[in-house]
Design brief:
heterotrimer; A mainly alpha (389); B mainly alpha (260); C alpha/beta (340); A: 389 residues; mainly alpha; 20 helices; B: MetI-like fold; 0% strand; globular
């Protein structure tokens, strides 16, 4: 007895509204923030319009100079100048000081804007400066996305960022590498656990599963904090190792890649075990027996019966581990060193430390693209995964 | 045979690895000194005392509970209604709605957190309980929907027809046929929503101001900013709460709820 | 049931402010704020007849931006760090200080900006354990000299302050540091200097870390916050603090734009920076006041030998302007350098 369309839709509508308002729209807005370029157009609208109308060759017409001088002065007076100063300074350090100095001199520039500006600072006579401003006139920009992969846009085209400033490619590669390593270790460790539990009678398996579910239900932060405490230089692990004579001096473990991998494996292992267990539980025990009766040894049974049949479950778990690992923030932040930070911590950095929402959004876009690509890849390689997820 | 023993042995080691950190934190939280040594040199309850008397930690505990309860209420109501509508109704784009529902779960939390922060900032919702609850709800509600849908799976519509033929109004049929059936699913979803909110960290990191710090957020501040051994006690408290929720979830599952 | 929901809603929206709001001052918390409350805020409340509430925050001005944008300002006076103050002033999230209420001439040089009145100073300098290392580096050139002074060093993680220190160690005069650091050649020079010391360097993020490391012997010589060093020395720790290596800056009192209590806020700032209340505060807590009469008072200087403002004439004032202009770029370079 299916109800009609409208009452049923009314039941779904509140949740739908929440999803749209509190998820879809914010995420959409963030995608937009990665490419939007509004600071200059907002603070200096006439200048922006003049720049957009200009073709970009040589220096812009006098009107642009006049608008710039006037609007900069007004922006400083009304204290709206911070955002455009920051935006331009991000693209080229030193522009903030230039804008502020020009804004303070606005009064004097009224009679002869063009001459006055160039006299105030030689940069106002350089085409490169004006081209940069034109590029920032909006409405869209590739600045943040390019920066996020260590590229720069120059008049000569798109070039690599100088080596002293290139951090993001390393960052993404490092994130992928850590995630891949953690996934591999989790799969290898999950296999024996899932296989053993699947072979146990239901009740015993339940107890064993509890040992997996307990960390699964414990907050990631709590588990990471536990490792933070355990791995301290004066912590229990070091003390035990010294007492047992394994090492002479306490090891520095916090702030190392080892700690990050260890803690991440610990946190993500249940995500690998549970799907693998679910699949292995459903395996027909008759199949390996049949293989044995046909003369297959234990290794052959494992490789040619068990492994192929349990693979979808293991792979599903592995894919989930990878997707979670790629977006990890807490664990590298708490137990890792400066060389272990992953993409997520830079997103957090650009949101809270230096408000540069364009960069935060650009990095988020790339992270989303990465996870999306991995999901599609897994879906294509494992037809069964789509059903399971 | 040796293969079996080896695999079993490996499994045991891994399981030990899984539970040992929390097992180690437990005695540390009762340690007398600030030095983290096992076994502890002396035993005392001072960290728990600090946890339950310090303004900051009490506020964090209060906030954790308030936000989790609000999230559970909001998420359970919205999620259950939506699940009922999705199951019983003929809604076009059902697949799209379910896909949208899954998005907060598959999106990396830091991206969701950043997006919500950017969207809520100009609205003045950052640094408020309301904004925090909204954020927590959005990542919890998919589980409620899934749990209730699961409990409705294989629901025999003839039961409703039978009730109608016996003279029951639709409301009565709902109350006495559907409601008992979905109750375990709703319970399981509610428990999962509560647990998700209670343990939630990264959304809270971005959206909460000092007045809305939850226990996980406060633990992070105590680790990162001003080292405070009270974190061991706080971690144990959170851990015990998770265990209670796990047991509650298992109980719901036995009754026919659960997430499959 | 309905009562329960109503109570929950009340709890949830407890963040919503009351219509007529009390004057609220926000600072960095801790023991200092407890003393400020007793010695500064409460006397003002008593004298003005209106309550003064105080809260603490973590020097993240994100919430301030949000409340100004949302036009729902719940903080009036805030203790702000120099770069945030400058940026915030340009962005219009702080009011211009009313200099007719707060006398501008009472402050040390560099102690006021358009939107800020100098509150307290802070700084970093080289320190080490005197017992373990009776002879320690007296300046940054010696800090770099691992032959004469072997052992690990600790610097703050980040470009700010670290790059200036690198140039100072290479013989650049204090007056020239920011000019040189503003050039490509100067920046290369600074990073090359850091490369030279890198095998012996550890970087700290939390203010307590260098003190833990020096205390445990993990690090021989470190650059750390002088306030903490002074507290440790007063607490009996045998630390040597090298004032010649001081880099310092001021934190300022600012008024949030759109505050409904703007006039009272200005009067509060006048009180917070007045001579008598600050004198009283230095008696109970070793602060570094920016009010000249207090900072230069010989009696107070004698009573507080470790007061930073005794030594600012030797030190380098960290340039807010420079870091606002070049901060993003240089911090990214620093991260790249760290990851090489």
């Amino acid at each position: 007895m299916r109800r009609g369309g409208l009452p049923a839709f009314l039941l779904v509508a509140p949740l739908l509204a929440l999803l749209v308002l509190s998820f879809a729209l914010p995420v959409g807005r963030m995608l937009w923030t990665a490419v939007a370029d509004r600071e200059l157009a907002d603070a200096l609208p006439d200048t922006a319009a003049a720049l957009r109308a200009w073709d970009g060759d040589g220096l812009p017409p006098d009107a642009a100079f006049a608008h710039l001088a006037r609007e900069l002065g007004a922006a400083l007076e009304e204290r709206r100048i911070g955002l455009v100063a920051q935006r331009l300074n991000f693209e080229e350090p030193g522009l903030r000081a230039l804008l502020l100095r020009t804004a303070r001199a606005a009064e004097r520039l009224r009679d002869d804007p063009r001459g006055g500006l160039v006299a105030l600072d030689a940069r106002w006579g350089e085409p490169a400066t004006w081209r940069l401003l034109k590029g920032a006139a909006g409405p869209l920009t590739a600045l943040y996305l390019l920066r996020a992969v260590d590229l720069r846009l120059t008049p000569a085209g798109i070039v690599d960022a100088p080596a002293e400033e290139a951090i993001f490619r390393t960052l993404f590669l490092r994130t992928l590498w850590i995630a891949a390593l953690v996934t591999l270790i989790c799969i290898v460790l999950a296999y024996p656990v899932a296989a053993t539990l699947a072979a146990l009678p239901e009740r015993l398996a339940g107890y064993g599963l509890l040992l997996v579910l307990v960390p699964f239900w414990t907050s990631v932060l709590v588990r990471t904090t536990a490792w933070f405490v355990l791995l301290q230089r004066e912590g229990p692990l070091n003390a035990a190792a010294v007492a047992l004579g394994l090492i002479e001096h306490p090891l520095q473990m916090i702030g190392t890649r080892f700690a990050v991998i260890l803690a991440m494996v610990h946190v993500l292992l249940p995500f690998a075990i549970l799907p693998a267990y679910a699949v292995m539980r459903r395996l027909d025990p008759a199949l390996p027996k049949a293989a044995a009766s046909l003369g297959a040894g234990p290794l052959a049974r494992f490789l040619r019966v068990h492994l192929p049949l349990s693979f979808p479950g293991v792979a599903a778990g592995g894919a989930m581990v990878f997707l979670l690992a790629v977006g990890f923030y807490i664990t590298p932040a708490l137990v890792g060193g400066p060389r272990d930070q992953m993409v997520a911590s830079f997103i957090a950095f650009f949101i809270s430390q230096t408000p540069n929402w364009g960069m935060a959004a650009a990095l988020s876009v790339l992270l989303l693209a990465m996870t999306g690509a991995v999901t599609l890849l897994v879906r294509a390689v494992l037809p069964g995964f789509a059903r399971r997820a | 045979m040796t293969g079996r023993v080896l695999v079993g042995g490996a499994a045991a080691l891994v399981l030990l690895f899984l539970v040992s950190p929390m097992l180690a934190i437990l005695p540390l939280s009762f340690s007398d000194s600030e030095i983290l040594r096992l076994p502890p040199e002396g035993w005392s309850l001072r960290w728990y005392e600090r946890l339950f008397t310090s303004d900051r930690w009490l506020l964090a505990a209060r906030n954790s509970v308030v936000v989790a309860v609000a999230t559970t209420l909001l998420g359970t109501v919205l999620g259950t209604l939506a699940a009922l509508g999705l199951h019983f109704g003929r809604i076009p784009g059902r697949g799209a709605i379910l896909a949208l529902l899954a998005m907060p779960v598959v999106t990396p939390s830091v991206v969701t957190a950043a997006a919500l922060f950017l969207a809520y900032s100009p609205l003045g919702l950052t640094g408020t309980m309301a904004g925090l609850v909204l954020g927590h709800t959005i990542i919890s509600v998919p589980f409620v929907v899934l749990a209730v849908l699961a409990s409705l799976r294989g629901f025999d519509a003839t039961l409703l027809r039978a009730a109608a033929s016996l003279g029951a109004t639709p409301a009565q049929a709902f109350r006495r046929v559907v409601l008992p059936l979905i109750a375990p699913g709703v319970a399981a979803g509610a428990v999962f929503a509560f647990a998700t909110s209670f343990d939630e960290f990264i959304l809270t990191l971005f959206l909460a101001g000092p007045g809305q710090f939850t226990l996980p957020r406060q633990i992070y501040a105590a680790v990162r900013d001003v080292w405070d051994p009270t974190i061991c006690a706080a971690a144990v408290v959170l851990f015990l709460a998770s265990m209670l929720l796990l047991l509650a979830s298992e109980a719901a599952r036995r009754r026919g709820g659960g997430l499959g | 049931m309905t009562r329960w929901i109503a109570a929950l809603a009340a709890l949830l929206f407890a963040a919503a402010p009351a219509a007529a709001r009390d004057l609220t001052v926000v600072a960095g918390g801790g023991a200092l704020q407890d003393h400020m409350r007793r010695v500064l805020f409460e006397p003002f409340a008593r004298a003005s007849g209106a309550p003064v509430l105080d809260q603490s925050y973590d020097y993240n001005i994100g919430p301030i931006r949000a409340m100004v944008q949302a036009r729902n300002v719940t903080w009036d006076v805030v203790l702000v760090e120099a770069p945030d103050l400058r940026q915030g002033c340009d962005d219009g999230i702080f009011e211009r200080i009313d200099w007719s209420v707060v006398p501008r001439d009472r402050f040390l040089p560099g102690g006021t900006t358009e939107c800020g009145a100098g509150a307290i100073g802070w700084g970093v300098a080289v320190f080490y354990d005197e017992r373990r290392n009776p002879q320690g580096p007296a300046n940054f050139a010696e800090f770099w000299d691992v032959q004469r002074f072997p052992g690990r060093r600790a610097l703050r993680m980040g470009a700010r302050m670290t790059l200036e220190i690198a140039l100072l160690s290479d013989g650049v005069a204090q007056a020239d540091v920011y000019r040189v650091l503003g050039t490509a050649e100067g920046q290369r020079r600074a990073f090359a200097r850091l490369d030279a010391l890198r095998p012996h360097l550890m970087f700290w993020r939390g203010g307590q870390q260098p003190f833990d490391w020096v205390g445990s012997g993990e690090v021989a010589y470190a650059v750390g916050f002088v306030g903490r060093a002074a507290n440790a020395i007063r607490g009996g720790q045998p630390l040597a603090l090298r004032w010649d290596t001081l880099l310092y800056a001021y934190d300022y009192w600012a008024v949030v734009r759109g505050s409904p209590n703007r006039d009272a806020a200005m009067r509060l700032i006048a009180h917070l920076t007045a001579e008598e209340p600050l004198r009283e505060l230095t008696r109970v807590w070793p602060i570094n006041p920016v009010t000249a009469a207090v900072a230069r008072d010989p009696a107070i200087r004698a009573a507080n030998p470790l007061m930073m403002t005794n030594f600012t004439d030797r030190g380098l004032q960290i340039s807010t302007e420079f870091w606002l202009d070049n901060g993003t770029d240089l911090e990214q370079r620093f991260t790249a350098w760290l990851n090489r």
